[in-house]
Amino acid sequence: MSYRKRTAALATAAALAGAAVWTAAPAAVAQVVDVSYSCKTPIGDKSAVSPIDIKGVRSGDGYRITMSWQKGVSSSPVELGKGSMKPSATIELGGADSGTLTVTGPANQTAIPADTPIKISDLSGTYTPRKTGKVTFTAGVLTIKALGTTTTCTPTGSAGPSLTLDVTAATGGGSGGKDGNGGDGDGGTLPQTGPEDSAIALATFGGTVLLVGAAGTLWLTRRPRTR
Known about the structure:
Blueprint: H1 3-23, E1 28-30, E2 33-41, E3 44-59, E4 62-69, E5 85-95, E6 99-104, E7 123-127, E8 133-146, E9 149-156, E10 163-167, E11 182-183, H2 195-221
Antiparallel strand pairs: 1-10, 2-3, 2-9, 3-4, 4-7, 5-6, 5-8, 7-11, 8-9, 8-10
Helix pairs in contact: 1-2
């Protein structure tokens, strides 16, 4: 085979390798899911439905998971002053992993009028993968503490996961908390879940493959001629 044909073959192989790495990027699938809640409140049982959005941002060995409510749930017969309502929730892990992840957030930043659906602030926690594979994140129990009372809202029915991540088990163990995962302040390390960050990293690797191919081409084209 001539040097020119070898050069073309190497360049093609490098390009295909880079493309293969790109298409193998881990998937992150997120969708807004309507979750029906049955709430136990100080004034009786209530029910509500809220679309739930769960997102993950990759950082270090884990993920920063954020849970958002698009509609308010439950209500209070009296006004809740600023800072008087503190929410927290659990997220059920499924697929390659199991257990629960606790997410927490700030107290209400403004007063909540009486008999008004309580808007929950975004809640976040740290998830460190212990298994490799696809892990699902599904809305769990919501807890609202206000004015010395506790309201517990439990999902009913069979709402599906709001987020699915293709993860790799972290090295060095979990981050603490229930089943190796916890909310804010658990001291764990974190491994955008969005395909963007993974794709950027893999694209960099693909570029390295291409550079290696280019280096091989340069070596071939500059190899001393035999006499």
